[in-house]
C-alpha cells in the first residue's frame, strides 16, 4: 500500500542505467514508497509502454540535444550529452519536487545514478536526502575509486603489467575497464566514472546493484570506507524464481522487441541447444569482427538466436545465410534467457546482461567491448567461473575458430559441466539474496523504512 513517502528517481538516460533504476523503483514501491522517475521526454514515451503507470509516476524534462555544444568544439559527444542532460535536470527537477510536495506526497529523497553525482546538489538544495545508485559491480566501482583517490598508476605497456588491489583478483591491464587504459576512449567518460565518487561520502545512502556473496571481499573493503548497501541483482526475481513473482517490470526497451518470432522459433529447439547472442544497447562491432562472429556461429553447427540492433545490421556479411540461426533486432532478453532451449549466452559482458544470466543460471561466453565489460569478463572467467572469456588476435579480432572453441567449451564436455554447475550455484545465491529476508531484500526494506521515517 503506497504511503505519502515519495522519492524522485533520476537514472542516467541510457538503457543499461535505466533498467536497474526502474527495477529498484519497483522494489521500493513494493515496500510502500511512492516513486516519480524523471527522464527525457522521448525515453518517457518508451517507458510508459513498459511500466504500469500505477507503479511508477513519470515526469519529463526536455530531450537532450547532442548537437548543442555551446560553441565549444572541443567537447566530445558524451561531454555534450552529459552537459545538456545536466542542464535539463537542474532546470526541471526543482519544479517537479515542488509540484509533488504541494500535492501532499512529501518528497523525501532523490535516488540518482552514480555517474550524475551533481543530482545530490539538487537534492540538498531542496532540503532532501540523497541516495546514490551504482549500476556497475563494486569491483569496477572500486577501480575508479582508487583512481579518484590517486593511488592507482596505470602503465600503457601491457606486457607484465599487473595490479593487486584490496578485495580484488590480481588484474592485468586488459582486465581493467577499457576507459582506464585505452587512450582512444572518450576521456570525458573516464572523468565521469572517476568523479562519481565526488558525492560518495556526502550521500545519505550508497546503493550497489550487486549482492553480498558475489563480491564479498571487495564489498567488505568498501564497507570499511563508508556504509554501503547491496540491493541487487535488481533483475526481477520472478524470472529467477517463480516463488517471487511480483509486479516487476524489468525496465524498458529503447528498441522495439521482435518477440513473437523469437519464441515461436525457440519452441522448436531442443533443451539447452541454442546459443543466445547479444551485445547490449551500445556496442558497435567492426565489420571484420561481425564477419568472424557470423561465420563462427555457423561453424558451431548449433542453433543461435542473434540480436543485431538495426543500426548494426549493415555490418552482417552480405552473403551470410544460416538455416540454424535467427537474427532479430531486439528481444525481451529476460524471457529469452529463461527459455529451456537456451544453452549459453554469448555476451559483451554488460553488467545487466551479466546479472540476468547469473540470476537465471545461464552459462556465458564473454566477448567484452568497452567500459566495465573487460573487468566483468575477468570476474566471470577467473573468479565466478560461470563462463569463459574469448581471446583476441593481435589485431583485437576474435576469430571464427575462437568463437567455435569457446562455445564448445561451455556447451559440452567436462569444462562445460563445471561451468554449468557454477552457473546454477550463483543463481541459487542470487535468488537467496533477493528473496524475502535475503541480504539484498533486507537492505532494500531497511532503506525504504528509513525513507518512510524521514
Ligand atoms: C551499458 C554498458 O555498455 C555496460 O557495460 C554497463 O555495464 C551498463 O551500461 P549495455 O551495453 O546496454 O549497458 O549492456 P547491459 O548492461 O547488458 O544492458 C542491456 C540491457 O538491455 C539488459 O537489461 C538486457 O536485458 C536488455 N536487452 C538487451 C534486451 O532487453 N533485449 C535485447 O535484445 C538486448
From TrEMBL:
Domain Glycosyltransferase N-terminal: 7-51
GO molecular function: quercetin 3-O-glucosyltransferase activity; quercetin 7-O-glucosyltransferase activity; UDP-D-glucose:delphinidin 3-O-glucosyl-5-O-caffeoylglucoside -O-beta-D-glucosyltransferase activity
Annotated catalysed reactions: an anthocyanidin 3-O-beta-D-glucoside + UDP-alpha-D-glucose = an anthocyanidin 3,5-di-O-beta-D-glucoside + UDP + 2 H(+)
Pathway the protein acts in: Pigment biosynthesis; anthocyanin biosynthesis
One cellular-component annotation, GO: cytoplasm
Alphabetical keyword list: Signal, Transferase
UniProt EC number: 2.4.1.298
PANTHER family associated with the record: GLUCOSYL/GLUCURONOSYL TRANSFERASES, UDP-GLYCOSYLTRANSFERASE 74E1-RELATED
Annotated function: Catalyzes the glucosylation at the O-5 position of anthocyanidin 3-glucosides to form anthocyanidin 3,5-di-O-glucosides using UDP-glucose as sugar donor. Anthocyanidin 3,5-di-O-glucosides are molecules that are responsible for pigmentation. Also acts on anthocyanidin 3-O-(6-O-malonylglucoside). Much less active with hydroxycinnamoylglucose derivatives. No activity in the absence of the 3-O-glucoside group.
Protein's name in the database: anthocyanidin 3-O-glucoside 5-O-glucosyltransferase
Originating organism: Erythranthe guttata
Amino acid at each position: 500500500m503506497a504511503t505519502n513517502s515519495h522519492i524522485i528517481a533520476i537514472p542516467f538516460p541510457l538503457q543499461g542505467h535505466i533498467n536497474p533504476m526502474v527495477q529498484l523503483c519497483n522494489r521500493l514501491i513494493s515496500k510502500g514508497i511512492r516513486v516519480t522517475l524523471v527522464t527525457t521526454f522521448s525515453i518517457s514515451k518508451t517507458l510508459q509502454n513498459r511500466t504500469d503507470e500505477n507503479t511508477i509516476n513519470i515526469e519529463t524534462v526536455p530531450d537532450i540535444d547532442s548537437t548543442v555544444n555551446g560553441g565549444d568544439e572541443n567537447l566530445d559527444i558524451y561531454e555534450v550529452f552529459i552537459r545538456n542532460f545536466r542542464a535539463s535536470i537542474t532546470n526541471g527537477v526543482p519544479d517537479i519536487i515542488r509540484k509533488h510536495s504541494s500535492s501532499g506526497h512529501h518528497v523525501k529523497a532523490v535516488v540518482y545514478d552514480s555517474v550524475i553525482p551533481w543530482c545530490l546538489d539538487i537534492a540538498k538544495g531542496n532540503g532532501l536526502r540523497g541516495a546514490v545508485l551504482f549500476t556497475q559491480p563494486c569491483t569496477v566501482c572500486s577501480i575508479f575509486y582508487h583512481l579518484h583517490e590517486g593511488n592507482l598508476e596505470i602503465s600503457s605497456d601491457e606486457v607484465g603489467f599487473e595490479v593487486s588491489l584490496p578485495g580484488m583478483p590480481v588484474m592485468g591491464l586488459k582486465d581493467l575497464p577499457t576507459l582506464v587504459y585505452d587512450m582512444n576512449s572518450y576521456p570525458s567518460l573516464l572523468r565521469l566514472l572517476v568523479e562519481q565518487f565526488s558525492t560518495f561520502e556526502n550521500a545519505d545512502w550508497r546503493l550497489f546493484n550487486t549482492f553480498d556473496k558475489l563480491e564479498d571481499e571487495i564489498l567488505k573493503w568498501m564497507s570499511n570506507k563508508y556504509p554501503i548497501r547491496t540491493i541487487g541483482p535488481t533483475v526481477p526475481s520472478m524470472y529467477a524464481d517463480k516463488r517471487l513473482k511480483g509486479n516487476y517490470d524489468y525496465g524498458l526497451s529503447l528498441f522495439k522487441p521482435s518477440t513473437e518470432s523469437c519464441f515461436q522459433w525457440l519452441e522448436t529447439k531442443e533443451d539447452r541447444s541454442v546459443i543466445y547472442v547479444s551485445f547490449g544497447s551500445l556496442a558497435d562491432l567492426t565489420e571484420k569482427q561481425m564477419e568472424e562472429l557470423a561465420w563462427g556461429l555457423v561453424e558451431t553447427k548449433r542453433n543461435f538466436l542473434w540480436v543485431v540492433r538495426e543500426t548494426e545490421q549493415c555490418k552482417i556479411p552480405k552473403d551470410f545465410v544460416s538455416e540454424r540461426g535467427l537474427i532479430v533486432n531486439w528481444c525481451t532478453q529476460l524471457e529469452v534467457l529463461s527459455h529451456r532451449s537456451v544453452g549459453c549466452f554469448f555476451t559483451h559482458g554488460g553488467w545487466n546482461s551479466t546479472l540476468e544470466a547469473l540470476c537465471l543460471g545461464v552459462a556465458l561466453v564473454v566477448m567484452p567491448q568497452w567500459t566495465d565489460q573487460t573487468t566483468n569478463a575477468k570476474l566471470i572467467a577467473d573468479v565466478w567461473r560461470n563462463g569463459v572469456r574469448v581471446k583476441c588476435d593481435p589485431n583485437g579480432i576474435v576469430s571464427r575458430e575462437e568463437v567455435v572453441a569457446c562455445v564448445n567449451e561451455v556447451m559440452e564436455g567436462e569444462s562445460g559441466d563445471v561451468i554449468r554447475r557454477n552457473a546454477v550455484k550463483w543463481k541459487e545465491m542470487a535468488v537467496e539474496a533477493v528473496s524475502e529476508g535475503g541480504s539484498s531484500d533486507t537492505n532494500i526494506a531497511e532503506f525504504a523504512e528509513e525513507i518512510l521515517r524521514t
